Amino acid sequence: MVKLITHNLLCCHARGCNYPENFPLVFRDVTQLEVREADYNAEFLQKMMPRLEWKALVDTAKQLGDTSLPEELPEGEAMDEEFLKKLHHVLMEIHIEEGAMHCPKCDHKYPILQGIPNMLLAEHEIGR
Amino acid sequence: MAPYLLRFAQCHSEFRLPELDSIANLYGLRMTLPEAAEERDPTLAFMIVDLDSEEHARLLARRCILIKTVYELWASATSYAELHATMKANPARWAPYTWTKHKYLVGAANHTIPDARMLDVIESFDYMDLKGEISLKKPDEIFVAMEEYPEKPSGMISKGHDDENFLRVFFGRQLENGTARNLMVEFDIKKRKYYGNTTMDAELSLLMANQALAAPGTFIYDPFAGTGSMLYTSAYFGANVFGSDIDGRQLRGKDKIPGILQSAEQYRVAGRITDCVVFDVTCNPWRCGELFDAIITDPPYGVRAGAKRLGRKEGLPMREEAKILENGAPSHESPEYRPPKRPYELAELVVDLVVLSRYMLRPGGRLVFFLPTITDDYQEVDVPQVEGMELVANSLQLFGHGVWGRRLITMKKTTSARLPMPTFGRRMPDESTPDGHTPGHQGFREKYFAGFQRVHTPQE
């Protein structure tokens, strides 16, 4: 797990890290990446779209070797099924199983074990 | 609209109406409950509801966990004489079935009808003059007479002396047995690949998914996911689900493939488990709110697993800088590092959950959770009252001879105001409890282990 939808919705929450400097987290030391089929649902994708940071999604997908998404979020008729299928693949089917996510600001490392990231903060990083 | 008769499963009577309401809401069905309060009594085994079509009645039977059977209602009465009179006034009802392969079924709730009288009852409908083949095994239609008796005190065995002393009798055409009840067998914990000692039972996990209006296209979150019970049932009904927990061992289990994924594969819902992430909800990495259609959770309340949050116990200061180990590396970067945790008081957790939900839900989204309560201490105001979150349902399940129980609370987000991320007790002065009310579930763990005895002052 750790799909790009999750990556796009989480940010570093250590003390002193604020949006937008704490986002997107940077994948490092990814030693296991898998592609697994997920159930396609256009309604779900359309609902998620306004919540996504498009540039972060496109850039992160590229870093992981997927260049299928357009630089700009399509509008109107360009938001067709072909586009939604590509979006579905990038958001829901690429899994990072082992590796880490780092904060672009404070460099806090969130390790990913068995596909489950540990996002707990250290004691001194908890906001007051 | 036309009347349909619902027969409920004999359990969780307080949960019946909220579930019915939720599923009607989910499918956008028009449904009218009886006007008289005594006919809307949720402890009765039968209820008559008005619906637009037979198809709608079937939808309810396929999705409501607490519906046993649905019937097209032809007549209801308090005596057979009255029932037959109503029936005979409308022979057009059964005319289409004159040549149908059929059988009659006579039954009762809270009673066993003696065999001899069953035949009498069937024969009393001879005026319908059905000429079709009678098939006990494969009938095309089942015509049903159902008697409803008052509930007997548990343990009392009926000796048949109250035979025919029924409250109501119904006649109708059976449409469908509730198929959702079979899911209880499918989701039985005993057959689940991965579960823990606080895993929610199958029936209530399914009920919660119904209260959450789980359906394809929805996004549902469990912030105390544990071993994932509600994730599986919500995903089964088509939702994309997301789980988080402060304890990664619960989510992962001991095998290489995380436990949650193993059970999800068993239920063929792995394709809808969006992700599971380890964090403390009071110190969470969500980038934005308004993400979820529902939040569904059984928060840890300290009987089998005490709730914890990051921090140090009362009075102890938090470290301001990273601790540097002898080898010069910061301690928190070592794989063995575990941040300190402190007990998380239930009363505080419940308020935080409602406030978190108000932030994370889309407007109109639902929060569904269990609140443990001590019967003598519970007051209605114990359910957190948070502006912008409205109570939809509150159903009690009792344990320990009624001394304590848990309430399934369903709330709806009614505000569409954009709110900031809550601070969860790292509270600003103006965020403290507004009225200083101490809820009855405060200190639930301590009260549970003390056997819920009232604390007496030494003077007594």
Architecture overview:
The complex is a heterodimer of chains A (128) and B (460). Chain A has four helices and four strands, in the order αβαααβββ. By secondary structure, chain A is of the alpha+beta class. In chain A, strand 3 (109-113) and strand 4 (116-117) form a beta hairpin. The longest helix of chain A has 13 residues, at 81-93. Chain A starts with a helix and ends in an 11-residue tail after the last strand. Chain B is an alpha/beta fold. Chain B has two domains: 2-179, 2-Layer Sandwich (VC0802-like), CATH 3.30.2130.30; 185-314 and 325-423, 3-Layer(aba) Sandwich (Rossmann fold), CATH 3.40.50. Helix content of chain B is 21%, strand content 25%. Chain B is built from eleven helices and 16 strands. A seven-stranded mixed beta sheet of chain B has the order 2-3-1-4-7-6-5. Chain B has a seven-stranded mixed beta sheet with strand order 10-9-8-11-14-16-15. A two-stranded antiparallel ribbon of chain B has the order 12-13. In chain B, a hairpin with a 4-residue loop joins strand 15 (389-399) and strand 16 (404-413). The longest helix of chain B has 15 residues, at 346-360. Mean pLDDT of chain B is 89; it is low at 427-432 and 455-460. Chains A and B meet through helix 1, helix 2, strand 3 and strand 4 of A and helix 8 and strand 10 of B.
